[in-house]
Amino acid sequence: MVKHDPTWHHRRSIRLPAYDYTQPGAYFVTICSQNRECLFGDVINGEMILNQRGEMVERTWRELAECYPGVEVDAFVVMPNHVHGIIVLVEANPLGVGPVGAGPRACPGRPQGVAPTMSLPDVVHRFKSLTTARYRTGVLQDGWQPFPGRLWQRNYYEHVIRDEEELNRIQQYIIDNPGRWEDDVENPDIRSNAHWARSRTATGIV
């Protein structure tokens, strides 16, 4: 296994200087498990097979749009030790009830009353918090494999999607991700600084 390089990790966690992450737009995010532990399933013949823990993570992602006004989700994939997804921030319903006619829904961690403006870090934090709490319940009630200290790494990779062409490319990148696991930069068996740089250049996601 390739030894962790702290300078590589630091470069990934940098936010854009002075960028307003509350403004409407689409954001591509990658969130890795702590120490890149493979907790969420296995890739078999190019297909991601989720275990119960991975199914919980996927379900929580889908619920973000139902629980938090102003938040929509797009393409998403759970990999053995990370997730890729697109979060879309839109103007929140001032009543704080989500889609028209849906009515309020009780969601863990959701503020009550008038919906606040959610920033991208807010959404990622809620996702991490909800999945961590549900994972802990799974450990206690269903004997899930415990995670090492924390479920997710403290930081995450983010990219502002600037146009429809880029959106289409990133959507396809997410869909195709399981088929590239053998060469994935997050695969603990092959990850290296040089491999990361080559992969990001090839996909155009920089």
If you had to describe this structure to a student in words, what would you say it looks like?
The chain has one domain: Transposase IS200-like (Alpha-Beta Plaits, 2-Layer Sandwich), CATH 3.30.70. It contains five helices and six strands, in the order αβββαββαβαα. 34% of the residues lie in helices and 18% in strands. The strands form two sheets. Strands 4-5-1-6 form a four-stranded antiparallel beta sheet, sandwiched between helices. Residues 1-17 and 93-105 have low confidence and may be disordered. It has helices at residues 6-12, 52-67, 120-142, 164-176, 193-203; strands at residues 25-32, 41-44, 47-50, 71-78, 82-89, 157-161. Helix 2 runs antiparallel to helix 3 (120-142). By secondary structure, the protein is an alpha+beta fold.
Quick structural summary:
With 206 residues, the protein is of the alpha+beta class. 34% of the residues lie in helices and 18% in strands.
Helix and strand pattern? HEEEHEEHEHH
Mean of all residue-level pLDDT scores: 80
Number of domains: 1
Strand residues, percent: 15-25%
Shape: globular
How is the largest sheet built, in terms of strand order? Answer: 4-5-1-6
The radius of gyration computed from the alpha-carbon positions, rounded to a whole number of angstroms, is 17 Å
Helix content, binned percent: 25-40%
- The CATH homologous superfamily is termed Transposase IS200-like
Instruction: Using the coordinates shown, work out and report the CATH topology.
Output: Alpha-Beta Plaits
Structural class: alpha+beta
Total strands: the figure is 6
The residue ranges in which pLDDT falls below 50 over 5 or more consecutive positions are 1-17, 93-105
Could you name the CATH class? Answer: Alpha Beta
Question: Could you say what the CATH architecture is?
Answer: 2-Layer Sandwich
Describe the biggest sheet?
4 strands, antiparallel
Annotation field: number of helices: 5
Q: Could you tell me how far the N terminus lies from the C terminus, measured between alpha carbons in angstroms?
A: 25 Å
